[in-house]
Each structure stands twice: as C-alpha cells, then as structure tokens.
Amino acid sequence: MPATAKLTIQINSRRLAAAIARSLSPEVDHVAGSKAQIRVRVKQRRLELTFLARDATALRATMNSYLRMIAACLKVTEAIENLT
Q: What phi-psi label fits residue 41: left (phi over 0), alpha (psi between -120 and 50 degrees) or beta?
C-alpha cells in the first residue's frame, strides 16, 4: 500500500533553506531504486519535503536518509559559523 508524508522544516534563513535544497537535488533527481519519490521545495524560510513511497517501510527509510542529510548540512553550517 502506498505511503506518503509531508515534512516542513523551519530554517534560519531563506538562503540556507535554498542551499540545503540544492544540496539535496542530486539525490532527489536520482533516487536509488524505484521505491520512493521525493519533492523538495523552499517557501520563505521553510524547507518542504514531500515523500511518496510504495510502502511504509520504504517511506521510513527514505525519510530517515533525507533527515540525516539535512541534519548534516545544518551541522556543517553551524560549525562554519562558529569558526568565523
């Protein structure tokens, strides 16, 4: 049974939200396998992710992967900001 989810993540700036969306685009454009589809949008300072997967297991795995990538982007950004 298909499973869907929509996540909205508030980011500190629109510029950072757009940078994160761009960094995810290679993954979005070339999703490994055909178990899920992902759409990423930026609205103001919000990053909106929409997931469509063939089942709940694929949905959970895909969401976890993208959330980890976003967390990594945010940690790197924070580390860089702390250096300056």
A: beta
Kindly report the pTM of this predicted structure: 0.87
- Over residues 32-44, the pLDDT tens digits come to 667 899 999 999 9
CA distance 36 to 80: 33
d(CA 43, CA 56): 27
CATH of the domain at 39: 3.30.310.50
The count of structural domains within the chain is 1
How many residues are recorded in the chain?
Answer: 84
**Token couple for 10:** 């508030």
Interatomic CA distance for residues 51 and 30, integer angstroms:
14
Instruction: State yes or no: pLDDT of 25 exceeds 80.
Output: yes
Tokens of 62: 């895909």
The domain in which residue 9 lies consists of 3-83
pLDDT of res. 29: 82
